[in-house]
Amino acid sequence: MNFFTTPLAFLCALGPLIILHELGHYLVARLCGVKVLRFSLGFGKVIWSRRFGPDQTEWVISMLPLGGYVRMLDDRDPATRAMSEADQAREFTRKSVWQRIAIVAAGPVANFLVAIAVFGSLYMVGMDEIGTRVRAMEASTPAYQAGLRGGDRIVAVNGEAVATYTELRWETLKAVFDKGGVRLDVVQQGGARYSATLPPAALAGKDVEGDVLGELGIAVFLSPVTIGEIPDPAGPAARAGMQPGDRVISIDGKPVADGAALMKLVGNACGRTLEFVVERAGRTLTLAVTPELNKATNLWRMNAQVISQPEMVEVALGPIDAIAAGARSTWQQAIMSLKMIGKMVTGQISLANLTGVVTIADYAGKTARMGPEVFLSFIAVVSVSLGVMNLLPIPVLDGGLLLYYSLEVLTGRRLPDRVVELAQSAGVVFLVMLMALALYNDVNRLTQPAPTPSTNTYVRCPND
């Protein structure tokens, strides 16, 4: 099923973003009086074309759907040179530098506007997101040592209010990038407030692509454990008399706060019988469960569905606040992307973090299967990334052209055509190298074997 879902989700995510990006160029070019000859979705051989409008602009779909372009009247290219006097007034290079800047910048701006609209719409409709209440943590973790305790709810990070786990992670990542500390404003279950401070040393060296909050000891609060489906009637849970709906209170006398705690206790069983205390229909029962080893995964299990849900909060805003929140999310995502790129350039982050279309397709498929809200959020993030990438000062990208025109504004004269040609050639080579590296990272990431249980989750028992 994933074979069909992933490419379809990829096309649904990237296709409209490319079209809207190019429409930005097209519409502003028309407003500036430039004649548009072709609007292409994709590169390479044309597989479909039609002509529309007063200028008979050719609208085409090309073979490689990994981008697009708008071709205008341009005297620098013999194939697009203005032949008539009327057309010469509508030729791109004859427009003022500010008009050319507006036309080139319109594509990335369109991507940012799309992201604002998508984020804003999600905030307006209302989204269920994971809250900021945290589960109990180990005493050795930085969060515990800072004073944080299980059940507490984080309401602000360095003075910035947070209501969702996503916002909490975002503000913490900003502190990692800024190499600063984190001050958490916290509300206890009884309503008392206090502040917990994580020093810069606690955040130093954290991988922004990894589970930063988890490394600090901050994990999502989960509800008490309820047993769901018991698929195997001959499995450990069924043999012990466990039933769907049972609420697990303790195992071997140790209170079970949530599903993560249960999994840890069962995983450490090593074939030993565990004494479960469960609540069923108002009665307390004691059940003897002997977990079995799954030889395929080397994990101890009891063959029962464990239901332990995170605390959810609904985020719903009015139209004005929703658009403002969408703009803020877009800005934050853009700044984070720029910081990531900057750290790659300076060597503070490995180039292995550079990703391309394969990873985008993979995430498109995964988020599509998680529901429309998650998929739309993913589209908004990709739209921001496209806008940022296109603004980088690399020749052949929009940002490279904007650099040329900025120099023209500063110096009062255009760059020599020969200089532009050399820069364009170098830009093509550099871009191909980046795409090759991104493809290598994508393939490497997908083909790397998953961590084996023996080095990650398998508990080695005394008799192993």
TrEMBL record:
<dbReference type="Pfam" id="PF02163">
    <property type="entry name" value="Peptidase_M50"/>
</dbReference>
<protein>
    <recommendedName>
        <fullName>Zinc metalloprotease</fullName>
        <ecNumber>3.4.24.-</ecNumber>
    </recommendedName>
</protein>
<dbReference type="InterPro" id="IPR008915">
    <property type="entry name" value="Peptidase_M50"/>
</dbReference>
<dbReference type="Pfam" id="PF17820">
    <property type="entry name" value="PDZ_6"/>
</dbReference>
<keyword id="KW-0645">Protease</keyword>
<keyword id="KW-1133">Transmembrane helix</keyword>
<dbReference type="InterPro" id="IPR004387">
    <property type="entry name" value="Pept_M50_Zn"/>
</dbReference>
<feature type="domain" description="PDZ">
    <location>
        <begin position="214"/>
        <end position="293"/>
    </location>
</feature>
<feature type="transmembrane region" description="Helical">
    <location>
        <begin position="101"/>
        <end position="125"/>
    </location>
</feature>
<dbReference type="InterPro" id="IPR041489">
    <property type="entry name" value="PDZ_6"/>
</dbReference>
<keyword id="KW-0812">Transmembrane</keyword>
<keyword id="KW-0862">Zinc</keyword>
<keyword id="KW-0378">Hydrolase</keyword>
<dbReference type="InterPro" id="IPR036034">
    <property type="entry name" value="PDZ_sf"/>
</dbReference>
<keyword id="KW-0479">Metal-binding</keyword>
<keyword id="KW-0482">Metalloprotease</keyword>
<feature type="transmembrane region" description="Helical">
    <location>
        <begin position="422"/>
        <end position="440"/>
    </location>
</feature>
<comment type="similarity">
    <text>Belongs to the peptidase M50B family.</text>
</comment>
<dbReference type="InterPro" id="IPR001478">
    <property type="entry name" value="PDZ"/>
</dbReference>
<keyword id="KW-0472">Membrane</keyword>
<dbReference type="GO" id="GO:0008237">
    <property type="term" value="F:metallopeptidase activity"/>
</dbReference>
<feature type="transmembrane region" description="Helical">
    <location>
        <begin position="374"/>
        <end position="397"/>
    </location>
</feature>
